[in-house]
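Request: Give me one sample?
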Amino acid sequence: MNPINVFKLKGLLDRFKANHPKVPMFFKAVAGSVQEGSVIEIKVVSPDNKSIITNFKVNTEDIALVKELKDIV
């Protein structure tokens, strides 16, 4: 990965954390309980109150990806 892009990504993540401080706190709280077989559900509600929901079951590759991302940022 290009080092310049890593610095850009770090800056974007820092800004996101500042704008949405509850999100990193949430991920820290659940980090120990998410394991292979866990189901993660994501719901987005638009301003006109329409919902889109999806979910996925966490697998071994997902766990490895998260560990790699932690090392980058």
